[in-house]
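Page 47, continued from p. 46.
Same chain as before, 180 aa.
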Amino acid sequence: MKVEILGLDMRINDILRAAIEQKMSKIERFFDDSARAEVKLPPEGAFVRAEVTLKIQALYFRAESVAPEAMTAVEQAIDNLEGQIRKNKTRMKKRMKDYSYMEAYFEHEEAGGEERHEEDEFRIIRRKAFTITEMTPDEAVLQMELLDHSFLLFLSTDTGRVSAVYKRHDGDYGLLEPEY
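Result:
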């Protein structure tokens, strides 16, 4: 697995880099060489945010954590990431050929006999059909707020494509513009 460590507005010294790579090996052993990980460390006031993104073929895992020290934040994020992988293990195992790059992980888990809280399937409890309205991203944010939703799909007047706006955890807004 290739690990990329980025310090955003902060320097990553060799000791911290080695410690992060050692902690990432906790996850690295479960995947083949096609996996790519990115660890971003942007400062947040007196704290450091660790954003860990793991990409394996078309599947993404992402976790983040905020702590006073960079290494503590990285450890917490990696633990969260490992929890996500364990939680979804059963779902991925049912479609083993689609997730063949995780065979080492499945073998390791079966040998250890560890089973954590796992759900068998995702449940879709509601379906909704609606007309996609043409609007600007700013109009979409306003419409989303008026509906008190956390996201809104719309047809962008700027690009002519389906886009989505969403409310971020920090209170700001995000815009998704898929490429197809």
